[in-house]
Write a structure and sequence with these properties.
Structural class: alpha+beta
Largest sheet: 3 strands, antiparallel
Helix content: 40-55%
Strand content: 5-15%
Number of helices: 7
Order of helices and strands: HEEHHEHHHH
Radius of gyration: 20 Å
Length: 127
């Protein structure tokens, strides 16, 4: 049986493709504005919603693919914690302005600014 698997291509396990350079890169977060080495694209209209009728009626495929913001890992997690349902995220928070006005995100962004401002000050005081 093992020899059959070695010679039969359908038994080979396909590994996921390596992440593209653009998936994780260095830059500034579109929400908290801090510089990070781990910036990734957050789709403002989740890709899982692109083929649903509600979204197809209101947005073109190009517009759905274009709507996105580069965010740090902490902000990306906060977005999905604040709005766990993808349809709600795409329907009600499909712009950076709407997303950053969500009460949870307002608190998160303020916390991030305070956290990294405090860390910078304390690190300078040590030297």
């Amino acid at each position: 049986m093992a020899s059959q698997r070695a010679h039969n291509p359908q038994f080979w396990i396909r590994l996921p493709a390596a992440p593209l350079f653009e998936d994780c890169m260095k830059g500034n977060c579109g929400l908290c504005l801090r510089e990070s080495n781990d910036i990734s694209k957050h789709h403002l209209i989740p890709r899982a919603c692109h083929k649903t009728k509600w979204f197809e009626k209101r947005f073109s495929k190009e517009e759905m693919g274009r709507r996105g913001v580069m965010v740090c890992r902490e902000c990306h997690h906060a977005i999905h914690d604040a709005v766990p349902k993808e349809k709600d995220l795409g329907r009600h928070y499909n712009t950076v302005e709407l997303l950053s006005s969500h009460p949870h995100m307002v608190k998160h962004i303020a916390w991030m600014k305070k956290k990294y401002k405090t860390n910078e000050q304390s690190s300078f005081g040590r030297f």
